[in-house]
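step: validate -> pass
step: tokenize input -> pass
step: predict -> running
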Amino acid sequence: MTCWSEGGAECGVYEPVPDYLGEPFFQEALKRRLERAEKVLAEAVGLTGVPREDALLLEGRPAEAILEAAIGERADLIVMGTRGLGAIGSLFLGSQSQKVLAEAPCPVLLVR
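step: predict -> pass
step: emit ->
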């Protein structure tokens, strides 16, 4: 997921690490998740040319995190990927895409 704001900010979202893992497994899972998220965000920054200092890395339920970031950053457009489920699957959007489409404060572009 990527969202754009007036200043050209970009953000990426990842699911939170489950807290039931307990120590030290929780810290290790958190570290790995953050490393993976940073790598994905760095690739997106490289592809888009958005400066890293303008990029956001969000944690939480994707739709809620996207909507909060879009409001906080005064986004002009939210760009989201779809799963590409084929002809029948394309009749139904994922719950995250559907929620963002329904509640976004700006236009949403879905890309397959």
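step: describe -> The two ends are 12 Å apart (CA to CA).
step: cleanup -> pass
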